[in-house]
Design brief:
- By secondary structure, the chain is an alpha+beta fold.
- The protein folds into 3 domains: 16-31 and 44-53 and 67-271, Immunoglobulin-like; 278-461, C8orf32 fold (Roll), CATH 3.10.620; 464-602, no CATH class.
- It has 9 helices and 32 strands.
- The chain has a 9-stranded mixed β-sheet. It has a 6-stranded antiparallel β-sheet with strand order 22-23-21-20-24-25.
- β30 and β31 (561-564) form a beta hairpin.
Length: 624
């Protein structure tokens, strides 16, 4: 398997299998918008024996909603004496419902390190002759070139298997020659559909050995199948139910990771986080060396700063604001950052490049810093996770000098060896130094030091650090018209989202639209009398709205009464837990958040409060 980090937006990348049910991007659970043009005619041919062996076999337990069954899965990994690999994968599905036809679209990812040598697909229909499609019938396209990723060598071949209709058995087989950066492989055998039987075979050269690590499944003992050959089998694997806001696939799916150990002991497969960190540390050697131009820029930027913390904040803001996000990732460039001199000269780079340049600049003022490789999908990596490369982003840990431990630095932690450190994401233009976006909070990342890698948990910020606080002074007249001034203070990820929205609007006049939208969803008739905003580009300060609104018919006259609804602006609700079936997975929230609305409404003369709805106080432990 080609272990490349897949970009969050072109930063660190891994092949897209980290987000797919299958282990190598052959997949099947989601379609892509692609027209299969230029494909050859579907041929009538006999499907291979391993597929016909599945006809008529009993199916594992499943419910009436099951779209398909993975009847048979097999991976054959053959390791060559020089460390290169041949990987053959086979899968056969029984289609049960119309929605299962999406499994007929097979996608196989590859790049310069993983050449596809063969690709076939077959269909055994419920009646009639078998069908076959071959590699020449596939469509090839790029993958991942988006969100600032300018160049990538990741490619994908898409093969459409015909007649993937209920009652049919569809299958595919592909083989790849791989020259992986790490001598390891991963067997992901759990699906979003039931799995009847899955096999994994490993063939090693003489004097090679292996270590197998299991995640989310009990360890299985292999069977020796000859000299240097081992086989594993699992059966009746229950599917993973897809639920809203569930943990990421890589955090809950069952799999086995095999570390390959050559007789020399050199370039072995990953066995510890220390191994991963050492490899990455070696990749970054010399990359943070400054140029005379960088040194001059640091001197200019920090000349008026009074304290070490002010200098750090100034340099952090420079990289956030002046280095454009663009990724150029070919070959090892998917892992290795460019040199700080190139990044500074070009004024662009991806996440690991931004960390590299800022590290070089910080070093000029005597501040040490370290790479932190992380997956922005919280739960992809955790304390029980095997050493792997399931990362898609790079941030940094900045060592705080004496006297710089300011209480406003909420993203700080104390490391037993490094002392006080602050985690910082220079790619995020809206989150100031000392804070973290929600996706990084309480998340696990690999801290990279010269001694190797170490899995660390980033801090969770106080709940109120991400919030919308809305206060209003309003009056209600006897006709039911509500008018008054509203002040909003946005912090954390809420402020980030609002700033990103407003800065994307080309015209100043469009910036009132967020206020208009929330008012339109709250009132049948309204007028925004005036509006202003503050701190749009000052990420270190809360974002603020100030506006005056007038809404007619807010209250409804009824005789000598005014009927008033018990809310003014907006609505916060979710049907997340209102499901017919009990939930299987934990809920993964974007971030901790505390919102507060305080509206003071002056009643018209002569009116008193006659009745109010009862107060509600709900505390479910995880939310209140």
């Amino acid at each position: 398997m080609n272990n490349k980090w897949l970009s969050r937006g072109g930063s660190l990348r891994r092949d897209a299998s980290s987000r797919m049910p299958r282990s190598i991007f052959a997949l099947c659970s989601c379609a892509i918008a692609l027209t299969l043009v230029g494909a050859g005619p579907v041929q009538a041919a006999t499907a291979p024996p391993w597929m016909h062996a599945q006809v008529g076999l009993p199916l594992p337990a499943h419910d009436e909603k099951t779209n398909a069954i993975l009847l048979f899965s097999e991976i054959l990994l053959t390791v060559q004496p020089n460390g290169s690999m041949k990987r053959l994968e086979r899968n056969a599905y029984k289609i049960l419902r119309p929605d299962g036809q999406q499994l007929g679209m097979v996608k196989v990812g590859f790049d310069a390190q993983s050449r596809i040598t063969s690709l076939h697909g077959w269909c055994i229909p419920a009646s009639g002759r078998d069908y076959e499609v071959k590699e020449k019938d596939a469509v090839e396209t790029s993958v991942g070139v988006e969100n600032g990723e300018l160049v990538s060598d990741l490619r994908i071949k898409v093969l459409q298997i015909p007649a993937a209709t209920p009652g049919s058995i569809i299958g595919y087989e592909f083989e790849q020659e791989q020259r992986p950066y790490f001598k390891s492989d991963e067997w992901g055998f759990q699906e979003i559909v039931p799995v009847r039987e899955a096999h994994y075979s490993l063939q090693l050269p003489p004097n090679w050995s292996y270590k197998a690590f299991w995640l989310n499944h009990a360890e299985e003992t292999p069977t020796a199948a000859g000299a240097g050959k081992w086989q594993w089998t699992v059966s009746d694997i229950k599917p993973i139910r897809v639920e809203s806001r569930m943990p990421p696939w890589s955090g809950i799916a069952a799999r086995m990771v095999v570390a390959l150990l050559p007789p020399s002991g050199q370039d072995s497969g990953l066995q510890s986080w220390r191994d991963v960190g050492l490899w990455y540390s070696n990749l970054t050697q010399g990359r943070r060396d400054p140029s005379p131009e960088i040194k001059r820029q640091v001197a200019e930027l920090t000349a008026s700063a009074r304290t070490p913390l002010e200098k750090i904040q100034t340099l952090a803001n420079f990289v956030q604001s002046n280095i454009r996000y663009v990724a150029i990732e070919l070959g090892i460039g998917g892992y290795q950052p460019h040199r700080a001199t190139e990044i500074f000269s070009n004024r662009f780079g991806d996440c690991k490049d931004k960390v590299t340049l800022l590290a070089a600049m910080l070093k000029e003022i005597g501040i040490d810093s370290y790479y932190v490789i992380i997956n922005t999908e919280r739960g992809s990596v955790g304390p029980a996770t095997l050493p792997n490369l399931h990362f898609n982003h790079a941030v940094m840990a900045v060592a705080l000098p004496e006297g710089a431990d300011d209480p406003t630095l909420l993203a700080r932690s104390t490391h037993p060896k490094l002392g006080k450190i602050v985690f910082f994401d220079p790619t995020d233009p809206f989150t100031a130094f000392g804070r973290l976006s929600g996706e990084l909070q309480a998340n696990y990342g690999m801290l990279v030091t010269p001694e190797g890698g170490e899995l660390v948990q980033l801090p969770q910020l106080p709940t109120a650090s991400s919030a919308i606080d809305r206060t209003a002074q309003m009056t209600l007249d006897e006709k039911g018209t509500l008018r008054g001034d509203i002040h909003e203070v946005w912090r954390g990820d809420s402020a980030t989202a609002e700033r990103a929205l407003l800065r994307s609007m080309g015209q100043e006049t469009d910036r009132i639209k967020p206020v208009e939208r929330i008012a339109a969803a709250s009132f049948t008739a309204f007028e925004i009398v005036k509006a202003s905003l503050a701190n749009l580009r000052a990420a270190e300060l809360p974002f603020e709205w100030n506006y005056t609104i007038e809404a007619s018919n807010y209250a409804k006259p009824a005789g000598n009464l005014l009927l008033v609804r018990p809310r003014v602006l907006g609505s916060k609700s979710s049907a997340l837990l209102e499901t017919k079936e009990p939930r299987e997975h934990p809920v993964e929230f974007d971030r901790p958040q505390r919102d507060q609305d305080v509206f003071e409404i002056a009643l018209p003369n002569g009116y008193d409060v006659d009745e109010l709805p009862p107060p509600v106080n709900v505390d479910e432990g995880f939310i209140s």
